[in-house]
UniProtKB/TrEMBL annotation:
This is ATP-dependent RNA helicase. Residues 1-12 have a biased composition (Gly residues). It catalyses: ATP + H2O = ADP + phosphate + H(+). Residues 89-263 form the Helicase ATP-binding domain. One of its GO terms (molecular function) is ATP binding. PROSITE patterns: DEAD_ATP_HELICASE, HELICASE_ATP_BIND_1, HELICASE_CTER. Its EC number is 3.6.4.13.
Length: 816
């Protein structure tokens, strides 16, 4: 089997018949051809005579397989057939369309790969015949895995095989496509090639396989698969496999199956899940989910664990925060928005790990065959019982044992247990030991506080989870209104509960109709190129802020840029989070509480009644606790206060409202302009006359005061001279700043700056220094200075406005 596509070159490396003796080249060739024809004739005959229901078929050697396939199986240590292989391979070898259903880990991959190889062998397929078989997988991880198994068992065939899953340039893949006989692909990427790669011919296709067929046929892939099938020839064999196979007639019609054989290997089984799988569930309130998970990990450090969440955002947040808390078990995370190389590396690291915990989305829920997984934890309730079955199927594979635990929110318990019962899933309730319970809320809070990026992830995790619950179709299980959103936000270490807002529009309809898996892996598969649904318009011109906003989770500012973009249509659709597209947004809690009050028309913000915000078709209930918290925050309360009106100061320093030009009509109504002008001039003249009078009186008063003060001072000096006890300036010495600080600040008394009121006199000893001087005082000061000599006087050139000015001024004086 030659491997090509995205993996390696397309050169043939088949080993079959290589060591046979070669007497003469031409002779040997014709002999070989003849023998080959004889063998093939016999093989076809054996297949025709094969009884597909024969109880004698137990091993691969009991099947009429070509030597290349048989030896490949032997070399890969596959000998005994599993139930589904025993039932499906004979029917497929005989050319039937097959709908295969069997439990997880029961060997469905070989059940379709063996017929694929045989089909092309029987048709004597060569590289010049083009594409003979197409195998479609819903995820890249599964496609890679199928490709690896194909390489193993097909090692002795001469076919070329390729992997088409994206993650590489389309051109690079396209160059090799034409040479491939077997392709393993994801739907979106394959469709891209069929639409865009010139000369890629699929008209000869012999066999089409859909692994996880129910998933590929459901809404997430509907349009891609339908378009893809349109390119394929109608005359072909089709094989569909899944652990949760449906016989939906509409699906069969879409794929134009001809009298398909339904193979259900475990139809009569008591349970839909492997018998060696032990399943249990824990009822854990949403607000305690992470505590429970943390406790679980801490008590299972020597295990290999997969933890499923409903969204990549949840995966990222839990991974990043638990990593900081160092649980003592290696942590990995996997979701659809990671780069292809990272996804491959994480998958292979987890495969080869002995112990470790992988946080993952449903991107690895189906088909992926991680060896020796001990536990599957479903931290978020799956959207339906089928998803549950696939998730738990990552453990207890083939003949190994495994355990699975489902976390259920109290509101989900009854409804989901009913769904599991309907699907024949046996599960028992367990409780967490009291001594193992530990709240990690505070630690998360502190990590969120330290890292804005982590906090951002927490908010996103909150939104993506609540959104997924809101969108669930099965309202008997998922009861959005019963969720403790505040508690959940707190458990993620968030300081407040992000407000959830539902946008109106077509997209909501689409999201609502789609299943949760379709949403999460649909968006994931976009980045993977798997879904092929949502592609950014590359030609669209985007602003700097839009580009910044798209760089989510890279730094704290990305959210800031998104805010800048505002609410206009274009920007909004770009700035919303990739898999939160057009749906929910974080808003400040306070704003809405305020709006809420306004909407409710209440004057009493302390009411303890829960509040209800209308959100499109739904309601968000905000309880009284949040409101009380809100009222304690002064900053937030500012929002409730009157914002005030704008004032401007005129030349005299008087505040007055901002002048606004009067409307022309209003002005005309007041009368003729000439009369108004005269009235205005008269009023202003009167005002000026009044002001003039007041000024004159004030000046007169000041002059009189001045005279009186001068007289009083002269009287005082005469008395002091008489007593020989004159107060000297600067006697205190020391730090002039200290002195200045002890003085009254200019204007404090509202008077003329003297710091004195009429008639008041400080006692002579306390009056160490006055710092304002009027003209007469200044003259007097100078006179005294001359008289005493050598004494320093602090001169105040200007009236300082405040203490800083005084200090600066004093410092300047000191330098002098
Ligand atoms: N005949 C066989 N003998 C031994 N091991 C086998 C045989 N067939 C399959 N296996 C092993 O069983 C495991 C599960 O096989 P496979 O991945 O094909 O299961 P599946 O039915 O496709 O599971 P899922 O439903 O999860 O996709 C693999 O590790 C595979 O190697």
């Amino acid at each position: 089997m030659a491997a090509g596509g995205t993996k390696s070159g397309g050169a043939k490396n088949g080993l079959a018949h290589r060591n046979k003796p070669v007497p003469k080249k031409a002779e040997a060739k014709s002999l070989k051809r003849k023998r080959g024809q004889e063998d093939l004739g016999k093989l076809k005959e054996a297949v025709e005579q094969l009884d597909p229901k024969s109880p004698d078929i137990k091993q691969f050697t009991d099947l009429p397989l070509c030597e290349a396939t048989a030896s490949g199986l032997r070399a890969s240590h596959f000998e005994v057939l599993t139930d589904v292989q025993r039932a499906a391979i004979p029917l497929a070898l005989k050319g039937n369309d097959v709908l295969g259903a069997a439990k997880t880990g029961s060997g469905k991959t070989l059940a379709f790969l063996v017929p694929v190889l045989e089909k092309l062998y029987h048709a004597k397929w060569t590289e010049y015949d083009g594409l003979g078989a197409l195998i479609i997988s819903p995820t890249r991880e599964l496609a890679v895995q199928i490709f690896e198994v194909l390489r193993k068992i097909g090692r002795n065939h001469y076919f070329s095989a390729g992997l088409v899953i994206g993650g590489k340039s389309l051109k690079e893949e396209a160059e090799r496509l034409g040479r491939m006989n077997i392709l393993v692909c994801t739907p979106g990427r394959m469709l891209q090639h069929l639409d865009q790669t010139a000369g890629f011919d699929v008209n000869n296709l012999q066999i089409l396989v859909l692994d996880e067929a129910d998933r590929i046929m459901d809404m997430g892939f509907q349009s891609a698969v339908d378009a893809l099938v349109e390119h394929l020839p109608r005359t072909r064999q089709t094989l569909l496999f899944s652990a949760t196979q449906s016989k939906r007639v509409s699906d069969l019609a879409r794929l134009s199956l001809k009298d398909p054989e339904y193979v259900s290997a475990h139809e009569a089984a008591v349970s839909a899940t492997p018998t060696n799988l032990q399943q249990s569930y824990i009822v854990t309130p949403l607000a305690e989910k992470l505590d429970t998970l943390w406790g679980f990990l801490r008590t299972n450090l020597k295990s290999k664990i997969i933890v499923f969440f409903s969204s990549g955002k949840q995966v990222r947040f839990v991974f990043e925060s638990f990593k900081r808390m160092q649980p003592g078990i290696p942590l990995l995370h996997l979701h659809g928005r990671q780069k292809q190389v990272a996804r491959m590396e994480i998958t292979s690291r987890f495969s080869s790990a002995k112990y470790g915990c992988l946080f993952a989305t449903d991107v690895v829920a189906r088909g992926v065959d991680f060896p020796a997984v001990d536990w599957v934890i479903q931290a978020d309730c799956p959207e339906d019982a089928d998803t549950y079955i696939h998730r738990v199927g990552r453990t207890a594979r083939y003949e190994s044992k495994g355990r699975a635990v489902l976390f259920l929110e109290p509101s989900e318990e009854e409804g989901f247990l009913k769904r599991l019962e309907q699907k024949k899933v046996p599960i028992q309730k367990v409780n967490v030991r009291e001594n193992k319970k530990k709240s990690i809320k505070n630690e998360l809070q502190s990590y969120n506080f330290q890292s804005a990026d982590l906090k951002y992830l927490g908010q996103k995790a909150f939104i993506s989870y609540t959104r997924s619950i809101y969108l669930q179709k099965d309202k008997e299980v998922f009861k959005f209104k019963e969720l403790d959103l505040d508690g959940f936000a707190e458990s993620l270490g968030l300081a407040g509960t992000p407000q959830i807002k539902y946008h109106k529009g077509e997209d909501i309809k689409r999201l609502k109709n789609a299943s949760r898996a379709a949403i999460s892996s649909g968006s994931e598969s976009d980045s993977d190129g798997e879904g092929g649904k949502r592609k950014k318009d590359k030609d669209q011109v985007r602003t700097k802020y839009q580009k910044m906003a798209e760089r989510q989770n890279q730094d704290v500012l990305s959210s800031h840029y998104r805010k800048i973009l505002g609410d206009d249509g274009q920007a909004t659709s770009d700035n919303q989070d990739d898999d939160d597209d057009d749906f929910l947004s974080v808003k400040r809690v306070l704003a809405d509480d305020a709006q809420l009050d306004a909407a409710a028309g209440t004057d009493n913000p302390t009411t303890t009644e829960p509040r209800v915000i209308k959100l499109g078709n739904s309601e968000l209930i905000i309880d009284s606790n949040r409101r009380e918290k809100l009222l304690k925050s002064k900053k937030k309360l500012l929002k409730y206060m009157d914002k005030g009106s704008k004032l401007v100061f005129d030349d005299d320093g008087n505040a007055r409202p901002v002048y606004e030009l009067q409307d022309e009509d209003d002005f005309a109504q007041e009368g003729p302009a000439d009369r108004l002008r005269r009235q205005f001039v008269a009023a202003e003249t009167e005002k000026v006359a009044e002001a003039d009078l007041a000024d004159k009186q004030a000046a007169k008063l000041r002059r009189r005061e001045k005279r009186e003060r001068q007289k009083a001072r002269e009287r005082g000096e005469e008395a002091a001279e008489r007593e020989g006890a004159l107060q000297l300036d600067g006697d205190e010495g020391g730090d002039p700043l200290a002195l200045l600080r002890s003085l009254p600040i200019a204007g404090d008394d509202g008077g003329d700056g003297s710091g004195e009121e009429e008639g008041e006199r400080e006692p002579p000893r306390k009056k160490a220094r006055k710092w304002f001087q009027d003209d007469s005082e200044q003259e007097e000061e100078e006179r005294r200075k001359k008289k005493k000599g050598g004494k320093r006087v602090i001169e105040m050139a200007e009236e300082p406005d405040n203490l800083e000015d005084l200090e600066a001024l004093a410092a300047g004086l000191l330098e002098d």
